[in-house]
Amino acid sequence: MMTETLSPAEKAHVLLEALPYIQRFAGKIVVIKYGGSAIEPDSGAIDPVILDIIWLKQVGLLPVVVHGGGKAITRLLDRLGHPAQFVDGLRVTDQTTLEAVEMVLGGQVNQQLVAAFNANGCKAAGLTGVDGGLLAARKKEHPSGDLGQVGEVQAVNTDLVHALLQNDFLPVIAPLGCDESGARYNINADSAAGALAAALGAEKLILLTDVPGIMKDGQVLNEVTSSEVQELIADGTIAGGMVPKVGACLEALRGGAQLVHILNGKEQNALLLEIFTQRGIGTLVRGV
Ligand SMILES: Nc1ncnc2c1ncn2[C@@H]1O[C@H](COP(=O)(O)OP(=O)(O)O)[C@@H](O)[C@H]1O
Ligand SMILES: CC(=O)N[C@@H](CCC(=O)OP(=O)(O)O)C(=O)O
Predict the structure, then answer these.
(1) 15 occurs within a structural domain
(2) 22 CA distance to ligand 1 centroid (A)?
(3) By C-alpha distance, which of 150, 158, 245, 151 is closest to 205?
(4) Which of 140, 146, 207, 243 is the most exposed place for a label (fewest CB within 10 A)?
(5) Whole-prediction pTM value?
(6) Total structural domains within the chain
(7) pLDDT at residue number 4
(8) Ligand 2: which atom is nearest the Cα of residue 90?
């Protein structure tokens, strides 16, 4: 292990460096979006991201996990011979696609994550945005045309999430929602995480993906403001799946989140390094 190469004083320093961050964030809600691009298919091996999140909870933070699963949905659609189609990072969702989305997000991926948390000593409970009226959705209108059953969050009822947190459960949330008529919607997981972070008054929103942050000319941008984000979208630097991600960041900031980050979930212990050390990693998105 890497710690074997550290002297006892260096090991103690690592622990002491974390102390002010533990004190600052204890009791605070941190929404973590775990993207389908970073979640490995079920391999049986312990996912290091799961251990990082358990660590956060163990030292008194209140993590809330929102997961994606876009790659797994596309794999299922491929097996069904049903082509996947995206517009601005959003999956066009016909009836067959909605069924696949519900199976993968509400079933496979959610249960894979919950089982992994529980197996590693962390009480986790899986739910979708349909449960307890968590994510009240409506059909998302898009300038490019009809996206089918793609939803956008209209309102968030946080009662169930608070009930879980109060009972020491880690909420693991799949981004599905429904409207008052019972129609069900596929919601982009970043957008769901942004809306939840805003509604929960989260201290932090962290979006874990498969790239080191927002990239420009091959370099990761350490920090961007909301107005720079608009320019980066307009000039095509930010495209595809990164578009809903930055939208989620801006929504969380508008909702009062103090710190919003995009990190590479595949980078070893990215979460712990970002939260508990002075080392800045990924992209920090600022409100101004
Ligand atoms: N400027 C950018 N910087 C980084 N990634 C970008 C950028 N523009 C587009 N992307 C794309 O966004 C992807 C991340 O979004 P997505 O595939 O939806 O991930 P996730 O499944 O983690 O939500 C990256 O893998 C990359 O292909
Ligand atoms: C409307 C829409 O695009 N929904 C997404 C929901 C899953 C998701 O966002 O997963 P990632 O975070 O892994 O991309 C989809 O169907 O792929």
Answers:
(1) no
(2) 30
(3) 245
(4) 146
(5) 0.94
(6) 1
(7) 67
(8) 3
Nearest Cα neighbor of 249 from 198, 201, 210, 212 is 198
Spell out the residues 6+ positions from residue 70 whose beta carbon is closer than 8 angstroms to its own: 35, 36, 37, 91, 189, 241
Q: In this structure, is residue 5 part of a structural domain?
A: no
DSSP letters spanning 16-31? HHHHHHHHHHTT-EEE
Parent domain of 123 = 27-286
* Cβ neighbour number for residue 87 with a 10 Å cutoff: 14
Smallest CA separation from ligand 1 atom 18, residue: 241
**Ligand 2: does its nearest atom lie under 6 Å from the Cβ of 165?**
no
Establish whether 236 is an annotated binding residue: no
CA 141 from centroid of its chain's CA atoms: 23
Q: What is the CATH number of the domain that holds 112?
A: 3.40.1160.10
Q: Is 75 annotated as a binding residue?
A: no
| Alpha carbons 221 and 215: distance in angstroms, whole number | 6
70 is in an annotated binding site: yes
What's the token pair of residue 68?
Answer: 């994606």
Note whether residue 4 is domain-resident: no
Assigned domain for 14 exists = no
Q: What is the pLDDT of residues 47-71, one digit of tens each?
A: 889 999 999 999 999 999 999 999 9
Task: Please name which of 107, 2, 110, 112 lies closest in space to residue 47, comparing C-alpha atoms.
Answer: 112
Decide if 252 contacts 194 (C-beta within 8 A). yes
The answer, yes or no, to whether any atom of ligand 2 lies below 6 A from the CB of 262, is no
